[in-house]
Amino acid sequence: MKKTVLAISVIAFLTGCDLDSDSSSSNTSSSGYTVTGFDGYLQNAVVYIEKDNKSGFSDPSEFMGLTDESGTLTLDNTPSEKLSLQTLVLGEPAQKVLAGMDRKYETVYTTDSDRPSMPLDNEYTLHTTEGAAVISPLTDLIVLKMENDKTDVDTAIDSIQGALSLPSDSDLYVDFIDNGDNKLHKTAQILADSKAKSPDKYQSNPRDFVLDAKNAVEKISDDKISDPNYRMTVDGETVTEDKLPDSSDPSVNSDVFESIQGKFNALNLTNGHRVISPVTFFEADLTDLFIDNADNPITLLNGIEVSNTDSNYVVLDKNDKRTGLVAYVMDGKMRVGMNSDDAIEGSGDYIVTVSVRYEGSIDYKIRTAKALFSFSIKDDATSQ
Question: Is the pTM of this model over 0.90?
């Protein structure tokens, strides 16, 4: 017989005893209650309390915190209400709500451990059942099934297990990344991307998206199953077959990204600072920043640009105001500096958006990828 998640989590919180395999949804300790969000581990995602499972993060009073690089957030106590997770994309509604709470969140966005150093394309929400400490596309399916069919958690679990052709004793609260279950991981990737693309349709009929995702995964080769950059969405139309991509999407080389970000971190920019003549603070080679099929550098360098700049290459903030920092790409290198007629303006954290448009060598599909670099401007010379 299945144990409900709520019962398990309460027992764990009160007794601290060891539990059997059904208890993977609980993660309590003397130091607090830890919740984990993933299809890949989601960093800087909002964990919040949501009462209707539909609106996403919109009420600052429901904010519980942001996940760390392991996709985890530790709370002081076990929450008495259901938790949800909201991913963040710069300029999108939920991210604006967070930024409105405190300026320190203005440049905060969610990244996925499947594709580190890259921002997500779309905001989306994931839900879980009351008392559970795991939030994933699988727990989200359970909640949606319960809400749509007005059923209990065990019936919803049975339905999702059946759609995924999983054994009746399988754990839908499992960390499939830690377990190395590549097929379940790929299924979750497809479900998350599909929900982000068609949230209303997904919300109303999640089981058909599950069936579509399962069928797609069964046709994907083993090497693509384990490739986090092999991405696709399904449409929830089970009478038609979703076309598999011919190749993987471009991605960001994490080592190159971190090296360039280090150069931005070393900038010493102060509000009002001017220069007598144009100056270059640093150059960064972008040759290997974007890679295709996980290991092959993209050589179409004329497709790489700094996209949040004005006609004079001055970086713009989220309100399209000039920061005074210049960034542009020439001969495969990004040059960062200042023009003599500009001044550094503002204070706080800002973003430089580097993007690429790439034509696939097999299917000739135009793909895009972005890398977001952050830099800071101090209020004055005495700021730390």
Answer: no
Contact of 34 with 73, CB cutoff 8 Å = yes
pLDDT tens digit string along 49-89? 987 656 799 999 999 999 999 999 999 988 888 999 999 99
Domains and CATH numbers, the chain: 5-225 (no CATH), 251-378 (2.60.40)
Phi, psi of 79 (to 5 degrees): -65, 145
Rounded CA gap, 109 and 87, in Å?
8
Give the CB-side neighbour count of residue 291, counting CA atoms within 13 A: 19
Distance CA 364, CA 174 (A): 38
Helix-helix angle 206-219:182-197, to 10 degrees? 130
Determine the straight-line distance between the first and last CA of the chain, rounded to whole angstroms. 58
**DSSP per-residue letters across 45-114:** PEEEE-SSSSS-S--GGGEEEE--TTSEEEESS--SS-EEEE---TTSHHHHHHHHH-GGGTT---EETT
H helix runs in 124-273, sequence order: 137-149, 153-163, 182-197, 199-204, 206-219, 222-225, 254-265
| Sign of the CA dihedral running 59, 67, 253, 367 | negative
Give the tokens for residue 112: 């996925």
Contact (CB, 8 A) for 191 and 208: no
Q: Assign 200 to helix, strand or coil.
A: helix
**What does the alpha-carbon distance between residue 168 and residue 185 come to, in Å, rounded to a whole number?**
19
